[in-house]
Amino acid sequence: MSSSPYEFQYNPSLPSEETIVAHCLSLGFVPGTTIVDPSTKSVIAWIKYGPNVTIDEARTQDWTAKALRDAGVTDLQAPRVFHAFSAEYYGCSIGYIAMEFIEGIDCDSNDVELVAKAVQTLISLEAPPTATLGHIGGGTRSIVHSFFPEWLPNANYKSDQDFYDHIHKILKFLRIDFHGDISPHGRFLCPCDFNPGNFRKRTMEDGRLVLVALDFRATCFMPLPFIEVAMGKPQDDFSRKVVRKIAYPHQRSDSATALLSASGYLVQYGPKPIALPSGVSRRMNGN
């Protein structure tokens, strides 16, 4: 396969998109699968695929892998991405991410401190100056965050300012007293899903234990107060324990309390967006 237009890591052994699709469809809709070299039986790549898998997620994952490396982080990795694309399946767009296969053991309920340390590292990664909120390359409309019911704003934001305007209108609509401004806050990587299955343990040749962050569907760039919101939303016992172990690396924001309150009230409205600002249309089913 030729090199990717998204500066993904080139893997000359990766088969064609058609071969990847055929292999995945032969297995049905499972969380992912390996692609194996038939002659050597060695693993070429891990394929994540499904209707909610996007190229923008893949670009965010690959950016994170490189950012961790460039920051000199030695106890946390993300798999490099080789290729990402989408293909139609009975009228539905299915996304495919071919990534580095990293062997190890998935984390479990006993790994609270390891996952907390990994999340703490991820939320320390600042967005590049040219990035919008959301996933890399997806624009602000690609935001995935637990502030919203079903984690999606379902709004066709054309800019970050559209998002900020929407949040302020939501707060006003819900009659939540808020006089601050979210837009000046720094933008950092914001994971929302602390499920242990999203992290894997691997032991290096020198005996070091390294964690691997595996899933970036609900990890994108957000203003700092929304990291606090993500940390205030977990409902399961494991995630709550993780949050309690995180040493938050940023200054706390007064905005987070109002945002958490608004997030709770939004549940009654379901996935349909409310209080959209002028010029921002509703977005449903990814359209």
Please report the number of helical segments. 7
Q: How is the largest sheet built, in terms of strand order?
A: 1-2-5-4
Give the SSE string. Answer: HEEHEEEEHHEEEEHHH
Detail the poorly predicted runs: none
Compute the number of strand runs. 10
Radius of gyration: 19 Å
Helical/strand content category: alpha+beta
Most strands sheet: 4 strands, antiparallel
DSSP strand (E) fraction?
15-25%
**How far apart lie the N and C ends?**
30 Å
Q: What's the pLDDT, averaged over the residues?
A: 95
Give a verbal description of the structure.
- There is one protein chain.
- By secondary structure, the protein is of the alpha+beta class.
- Helices cover 29% and strands 19% of the residues.
- The protein contains seven helices and ten strands.
- It has helices spanning 17-27, 55-70, 112-122, 160-173, 224-232, 237-245, 255-266; strands at 32-36, 43-50, 76-77, 81-89, 92-99, 105-106, 187-191, 199-203, 209-213, 219-223.
- The strands form three sheets. A four-stranded antiparallel beta sheet has the order 1-2-5-4, sandwiched between helices.
- Helix 3 packs across helix 6 and helix 5 crosses helix 7.
- The longest helix has 16 residues, at 55-70.
- The relative contact order is 0.16.
